[in-house]
Known about the structure:
Helix content of chain A: 40-55%
Low-confidence stretches of chain A: none
Number of helices of chain B: 19
Number of strands of chain A: 13
Strand order of the largest sheet of chain A: 3-4-2-5-6-1-7
CATH superfamily of the largest domain in chain A: P-loop containing nucleotide triphosphate hydrolases
Strand content of chain A: 5-15%
Number of domains of chain A: 3
Number of helices of chain A: 23
Keywords (chain A): ATP-binding, Helicase, Hydrolase, Nucleotide-binding
Mean pLDDT of chain B: 87
Largest sheet of chain A: 7 strands, parallel
Mean pLDDT of chain A: 90
Number of strands of chain B: 2
Oligomer: heterodimer
Pfam families (chain A): DEAD, Helicase_C
Organism (chain A): Bhargavaea cecembensis
GO molecular function, one term (chain A): nucleic acid binding
Order of helices and strands of chain B: HHHHEEHHHHHHHHHHHHHHH
Distance between the termini of chain A: 61 Å
Protein name (chain A): ATP-dependent DNA helicase
Structural class of chain A: alpha/beta
CATH class of the largest domain in chain A: Alpha Beta
CATH topology of the largest domain in chain A: Rossmann fold
Helix content of chain B: 55-70%
Amino acid sequence: MDMTIRENLDSLxxxxxxxxxxxxxxxxxxxxxxxxxxxxxVLPTGAGKSLCYQLPVYALGGTVLIVSPLLSLMEDQVAQxxxxxxxxxxxxxxxxxxxxxxxxxxxxxxxRYLFTSPEMLVQPHIxxxxxxLRLAYxxxxxAHCISQWGFDFRPDYLRMREWLGTLAxxxxxxxxxxxxxxxxxxDIADYLLMEQPELFIHPPDRPNIAMELLRLHGREEKTEWxxxxxxxxxxxxxxxxxxxxxxxxxxxxLSSRRIRAAAFHAGMENEDRILVQQQFLNGELExxxxxxxxxxxxxxxxxxxxIHDHLPASAAQYIQEIGRxxxxxxxSLATLLYAESDxxxxxxxxxxxxxxxxxxxxxxxxxxxxxxxxxxxxRAGLSETALRVVRYWLGRLGTESAATQMERLAxxxxxxxxxxxxxxxxxxxxxxxxxGLFGYSPASRPDQCCSECGxxxxxxxxxxxxxxxTPGLLDWRERIDRLFGF
Amino acid sequence: MSFDDILLNIISRLDGERYxxxxxxxxxxxxxxQTLQDTEYYGLHPFFGMLPSLHAKDFDLAYRRLLASGLIxxxxxxxxxxxxxxxxxxxxxxxxxxxxxVYRGMEQLFFARLALTVQTVSHLSAGDRTFMPVSADxxxxxxxxxxxxxxxxxxxxxxxxxxxxxxxxxxxxxxARLSRFLARLSxxxxxGMTWHQLSELSGLSEMDLKVEYVETLHIWLDVISEQQTPLxxxxxxxxxxxxxxxxxxxxxxxxxxxxxxxxxxxxxRNLKMSTIEDHFVEIAINDPAFPLRKFAAQEDIEDVRSExxxxxxxxxxxxxxxxxxxSYFQLRLxxxxxxxxxxxxxxxxxxxxxxxxxxxxxx
Lengths: 486, 363
């Protein structure tokens, strides 16, 4: 029996992808889904997660529903499937024009892969249609978002639980992510209503990323360190920063030293953000100074260096961000620049957008008096995100427990930051400590492990020989010629 | 023209009758009764909606620069007017070539389509079918996809390049300006520049670059509508506003024409009465056949007209004092029709540096 499945799987792989062999970790996950089991797969970046949801449908028939956190990610995956010749694929999201959406909805059953967001999924008129489909299985892509965003940013992730509960015959659910702590795995299983899920967990260990931790005194010293080291070593790389202002400051300082760098943050025009990404992918820019708005869905395989100019708010965020280095398997470096004052800043920013318990009580009281929740939110001066979060918890728990929940969420965030502080301040192998945050230990010690075990920069980075040339403004006629390849 | 000069130009036309916000709302193209009225009275059509995503912060910086350099002053009540130096400078300004009233921010759509078309042709002719589109806007992608199945299908890259080049050539804009403009386009191995990068390279501020870019688009689009070359016409499809009315006012207009009263419309559309009043003012501004006399007695209309002319003002608060018996709504309607009936001229301010709107700015 097992033998036949094996043969079938191998020939299926060959037929669909042209590959002869699975990569490590893929086959077990695919088998589990085909057997109809709820499955949680934690595979490191670059392990080939998409194949895990793309292949089983060929054995099962029907439609795969993939719930994805970002529009750009969705569009990217749709484009990649289409490039491979898959025609039966669609994304159901807010990008669609009304007519297109109607078209997709009218033909739902025709698709092999249907991508959507949690927000779209829980809308009644969409979910009713999806419920009538023959779903092969449901996929939560980047499933750590349930735990990372569901509670205080995008509560529709948590509403998926109720949605799954209304399905008459719930198909198996597959959760995919690169990083998940024990708590995140519990949240995923709980909110995706999984029954005794099969777990396939590979530690988020990336031996080709050397880890460096430097303790400096404050911002100025960090700036100096960055300018000094980036003049000596080459990227391409990303510097993660705390604020938009810092992103711009560093990008300008680097540019003035003829290192091609640009800022990237959510305050920029959409067109400019696309241009910066494009320049980075093209190699026209060497460094991006970015807030955490940059990264997910960016597929640049040769990123050599990730520098953190601030303390990330959680271990999951940190591992996700450094995991963008070295996707091509080449030796890369992750540097965390830590100053003691970073902890307070990180804690302040992490809970900044979280509504206060008093605010929740105020909104609860307003609603009781007959105001709509929007009116109440306006009176309290709440941001759209904060209101979304309050609405969810008020509806679930009632006023008093929702207020307490805010305290609990803030406490959880502070705890995550505290564990990051311990990580940054404690001694010992950095790789072991980082994996320890998720409850693992490294399988082996790579040659270039971390700054505690000893690093040789020459073996990791390429030295900078000449300063870059900033191209001047081309004459417009010449630019047209070059754009068209004349 | 720099952003500061544009602002000075607008303030010169508002001539001490408005607060600074009037200029801000105008540039953003706010669809409120007040802004639409201002546009009409003071001949501000070129500037309407020229920068839909203008930030209050950038506007305030420019405004403060004008104050600091003594070109404008604020009266105690907050109205803003030009100093002597400001008047001199305003009189010496080159004529604006913006055409905001007609394009209303839609010129960005034309540019997004052009940029995606150029990027696509550039990659396809290099044999590259996978690239990250410069426009994430699905409606832009849709239009361009359709173009590649129709107009572009029959053209080779050379022809496309020539059409764009000749088109720009014929606008007569200077080379330096066009070089800054085209630096925003992307192609294979060659990305467009961000505003910040362009600013570093050209020495112009980001705001000035954005103003120049919008003006460049307006100039080019005006030329395109005369020349009718196939690709550029296709790219500019639907970019000119067809109706002077905003979407919601148009709906109100339709219901009114179907015989419904104002209150009925408000109820049916579930809108506040004040919103419906704004719509009626907008209709009154734009509809030559607007039945003003259904809303005010003929002698009131004439009295308001002569009083407005006598005082040389269109300020509602001033006129309301002279006509306590008329509602603000009635006054606004009468003002909206000022200079449009009985051949009287609404723009009776000789010697103003700002010229009234050219007919080319009308739809």
